[in-house]
Write a structure and sequence with these properties.
Elements lengths: L1 H44 L2 H7 L4 H8 L16 H5 L8 H16 L13 H4 L7 H5 L3 E2 L5 E2 L17 H4 L13 H8 L74 H6 L12 E2 L22 H5 L4 H8 L6 H4 L4 E2 L7 H4 L11 H8 L13 H4 L4 H4 L2 E5 L2 E5 L2 H7 L7 H30 L5 H22 L7 H28 L1
Antiparallel strand pairs: 1-2, 3-4, 5-6
Helix pairs in contact: 2-3, 19-20, 19-21, 20-21
Length: about 525
């Protein structure tokens, strides 16, 4: 009995050992399976064919990559950079961080296969400059023919001065913008840094500097670029043409009798550059857009695409150093925040000037506005706005009549336009106001001439201080007279009379000053 019991116990022990060994073998097998599966999956998912072939939302990127020089069939060395070689740093490829980042894409795709790509790709410089790929030294001084007319070197963009002390990374300029190309350098990114317009600061047109050379052309309230200096200089990208700009240029010895030979010093882009002539003299308004920050509207866009509606945030949007430090290079592309700057030659170089009166006629109709709005002329003279101004009536409400002046139509006011809105009695009102003001202006002009004649008569007897005081008073009175004389006092008859009274006072004060000097003399 005991022998049989011992045999049973032995069998039980053997079975227990067998089960343990089976479980251990199964565990080891599972571990091996998981390891093999992991590395198999690692190998499979690291292939670009997995990214583009398995995920339809990446088809465009995958097809573009296959036609890019990073694919082995498109470069002489037969080198191929897979997706993971560029999108992750060399030491990151096998880390859990990368796996979780990839899972974000996967879960977003599984949640909504038709959703747009959820994560902005960031290609770090470390991936571009890793062993076996690019080096700064190799690309720095290599001249690249960027476009048919523009040549380019990377070297200037590798310094801390490239963007006012802010770092420019590879993907600051190289990124995907079109369906056909995996990534490219769009001209707009060049324009944003090189041609971002200055804010308008001039109060009036400035055509030349002190020595008479035209170095820059600016116009009132028009942002401008200096194509002769700094990052906007034309010859940074363009080769300055050497051919003569004079179509009538004659060959040496071809000038006829009595004619002057003009070939001694032909006019070229180089000669104009040496003379400091502004490029904008001919190439004006070849840039459109300011590249300003889009802070967003009441719904979204701009800053509000990514951020909540914070007044503190929006108030800081103009701090360029802060914005670049927070967003460049890992958070946003330039055009996530900036509007586009355009740069191209105009097909017509006259119409845009011809159609913009403000370019040449600086601050036109300012006197009319003073009268209509009742803007104070000085500390002592102010008046109420015209009644039409109070109800937001603008120039076009009254200036409906077409009259011919210097060969083209000009809009002018007439009594008929008054009667159209008011009553038939108002038709005569405009002509009555004109008659009244014509007489008042004539009287003021007569007194102005009297002051000018007297000033000319006693000028030699005046000290420097007296002459300065007299001329200042005369100019003050003339300016008030001009408001009514040039601005047409009918725009605010009551205020015009008040201003003319001020002009009379200035002229009479000038006469008193000059007569006192003349009596002494």
């Amino acid at each position: 009995m005991s022998s049989e019991s011992e045999i049973n116990l032995h069998d039980i022990e053997l079975k227990r050992i067998f089960r343990r060994r089976c479980l251990f073998s199964a565990f080891i097998g599972l571990i091996l399976f998981l390891i093999v599966s992991y590395y198999g999956m690692e190998y499979y998912t690291s292939k670009s064919s997995f990214c583009g072939g398995s995920c339809h939302s990446m088809t465009e990127q995958y097809d573009a990559w296959k036609s890019n020089t990073h694919h082995k069939s498109n470069n002489a060395e037969g080198m191929q950079a897979e997706c993971v070689d560029c999108h992750f740093l060399p030491g990151e490829k096998k880390t859990l961080k990368v796996k979780f980042e990839a899972l974000r894409h996967l879960f977003a795709y599984l949640y909504d296969p038709n959703a747009p790509l959820p994560i902005r790709p960031v290609i770090k410089d470390g991936a571009c400059l890793s062993s076996g790929c690019h080096t700064r030294e190799a690309v720095a001084e290599k001249e690249i023919q960027y476009t048919e007319k523009v040549r380019f070197k990377h070297a200037a963009h590798f310094t801390d001065k490239a963007l006012d002390g802010h770092t420019i990374t590879c993907d600051t300029c190289h990124f995907k913008t079109s369906e056909e190309k995996h990534f490219e350098v769009p001209t707009e990114i060049c324009f944003l840094c090189h041609l971002k317009l200055e804010k308008p600061t001039l109060a009036k047109a400035q055509m030349a500097n002190g020595d008479g050379k035209v170095t820059k052309i600016n116009f009132d309230d028009r942002p401008s670029i200096n194509f002769n200096e700094g990052a906007s200089r034309c010859d940074i990208c363009h080769t300055i043409p050497t051919n003569s700009l004079q179509s009538q240029l004659q060959e040496q010895g071809m000038a006829g009798a009595g004619e002057t030979n003009t070939t001694d010093k032909p006019i070229t882009h180089q000669t104009m550059q040496e003379q400091g002539v502004a490029c904008e003299s001919c190439h004006f308004e070849v840039v459109k857009g300011h590249g300003e920050i889009e802070t967003g509207n009441v719904v979204a866009n701009g800053c509000l695409t990514c951020h909540n509606r914070s007044q503190t945030l929006l108030a800081a949007a103009g701090d360029r150093d802060l914005m670049h430090d927070k967003h460049v290079p890992n958070t946003a592309d330039c055009f996530d925040c900036h509007t586009v700057v355009e740069h191209k030659n105009r097909t017509d170089h006259l119409d845009f000037v011809r159609e913009d009166c403000q370019l040449c006629h600086v601050d036109q109709h300012k006197y009319q506005k003073i009268l209509l709005a009742g803007i104070p002329v000085d500390e002592d003279i102010s008046g109420p706005p015209h009644l039409m101004y109070e109800v937001n009536t603008n120039c076009m409400a009254c200036h409906l009549k077409k009259t011919m002046k210097k060969g083209h139509d000009v809009r002018s006011a007439s009594g008929e336009t008054c009667a159209a809105c008011h009553t038939a009695q108002h038709k005569k009102m405009l002509s009555d106001w004109k008659k009244l003001l014509v007489g008042e202006v004539a009287d003021a002009e007569e007194l102005e001439r009297e002051v000018m004649d007297l000033l000319a008569e006693v000028r030699a007897a005046l000290s420097k201080e007296q002459l300065s005081a007299a001329e200042a008073l005369l100019a003050k009175g003339t300016e008030k007279l001009n408001i009514v004389r040039v601005g047409n006092g009918v725009h605010n008859k009551k205020y015009a009379i008040t201003i003319l009274d001020g002009a009379f006072g200035d002229f009479e004060e000038t006469i008193e000053l000059l007569e006192s000097v003349n009596t002494t003399y």
